[in-house]
């Protein structure tokens, strides 16, 4: 079980002081060992501060090593603690960013679709499921082109998909029909981009799509109305031209008949 950071600070926060304590303990233990076992002829004070320079320097080097090890350990623990805190902050930040991105992904008013290189669906948002009339679980993991693209547009859509993955230009935008669960077709305007990993390798394609079926229907109806008005205008112009011709002919006949009568 992982030890909480607070406990780590409590245990290792005073290693420098511990080093000092251990060093002095070593000095006193060494003193008592000499007093009782190795050099009992000398009194305790003489063993505490030995007159032999070799003995004195040996003890001094030993306690300096112990103190130095305490400082070194304290430094290592401090750096590890700082690194762990930075990692925890980064993890919390990453988690918040991920949750925010997932919220945007789900709440967006457009379709978001992620396709793997083999054309299978990696993810689709709520709006995409609404347009298709399917649950996310039904869509994920199946081939997008085989199940949701009309037969007559399937190969064209695959070519666009392959062109996007190969880095060719011109495939960032496309309009394509999709088949819903009920069998009807909806026209979607797709904006496409590639997703890469930290090494720069392409891992998926992400597309944002807008259902433009109603707009296309309205545009088609408007176009037909404009064509109808254009035909009516041409027919009106031709009729007016024909009426003028007939008026001119009548006037010419009247003039001719008037001359004969005179």
Question: Would you kindly provide a written description of the structure presented here, covering whatever features stand out?
Answer:
The protein has 262 residues and is α+β, with helices and mostly antiparallel strands. The chain has three domains: 101 residues; 104 residues, PAS domain (Beta-Lactamase); 48 residues. Helix content is 66%, strand content 15%. The protein has nine helices and five strands; from the N terminus they run ααααββααααβββα. The protein has a five-stranded antiparallel beta sheet with strand order 2-1-5-4-3, with helices on both faces. Strand 4 and strand 5 form a beta hairpin. Helix 2 runs antiparallel to helix 4. It is rod-shaped. The N and C termini lie far apart (129 Å). 11% of the residues are buried. The N terminus is likely disordered.
Key features?
262 residues, alpha+beta, Beta-Lactamase, five-stranded antiparallel beta sheet, 66% helix, rod-shaped, disordered N terminus
Condensed summary:
By secondary structure, the protein is an alpha+beta fold.
Give a topology summary.
Layout: H1 5-12, H2 15-38, H3 44-48, H4 53-107, E1 111-115, E2 121-124, H5 126-132, H6 136-139, H7 144-148, H8 151-165, E3 173-179, E4 185-196, E5 202-211, H9 213-261
Antiparallel strand pairs: 1-2, 1-5, 3-4, 4-5
Helix pairs in contact: 2-4
β-strand percent reads: 5-15%
Strand segment tally: 5
Please state the average pLDDT score: 77
Global structural class: alpha+beta
Largest sheet descriptor: 5 strands, antiparallel
Percent in helix: 55-70%
**What is the string of SSEs from the N terminus onward?**
HHHHEEHHHHEEEH
Question: How far apart are the termini?
Answer: 129 Å
- The level 1 CATH classification of the largest domain is Alpha Beta
Write out the strand line-up for the largest beta sheet, numbering strands in chain order.
Answer: 2-1-5-4-3
């Amino acid at each position: 079980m992982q030890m909480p950071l607070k406990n780590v600070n409590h245990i290792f926060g005073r290693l420098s002081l511990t080093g000092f304590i251990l060093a002095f303990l070593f000095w006193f233990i060494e003193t008592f060992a000499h007093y009782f076992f190795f050099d009992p002829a000398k009194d305790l004070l003489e063993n505490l501060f030995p007159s032999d320079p070799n003995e004195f320097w040996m003890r001094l080097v030993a306690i300096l090593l112990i103190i130095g090890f305490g400082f070194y350990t304290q430094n290592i623990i401090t750096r590890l603690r700082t690194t762990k805190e930075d990692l925890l902050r980064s993890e919390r930040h990453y988690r918040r960013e991920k949750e925010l991105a997932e919220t945007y992904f789900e709440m967006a008013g457009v379709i978001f679709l992620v396709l793997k290189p083999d054309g299978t669906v990696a993810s689709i948002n709520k709006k995409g499921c609404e347009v298709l009339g399917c649950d996310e679980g039904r869509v994920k993991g199946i081939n997008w082109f085989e199940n949701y693209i009309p037969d007559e547009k399937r190969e064209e859509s695959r070519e666009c998909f392959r062109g996007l993955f190969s880095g060719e230009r011109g495939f960032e935008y496309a309009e394509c029909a999709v088949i819903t669960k009920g069998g009807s077709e909806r026209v979607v305007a797709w904006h496409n981009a590639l997703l890469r990993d930290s090494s720069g390798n392409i891992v998926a394609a992400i597309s944002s799509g807008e259902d433009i079926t109603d707009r296309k229907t309205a545009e088609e109806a408007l176009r037909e109305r404009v064509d109808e008005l254009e035909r009516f205008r041409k027919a009106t112009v031709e009729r007016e031209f024909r009426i003028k011709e007939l008026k001119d002919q009548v006037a010419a006949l009247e003039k001719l008949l008037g001359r004969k009568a005179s």
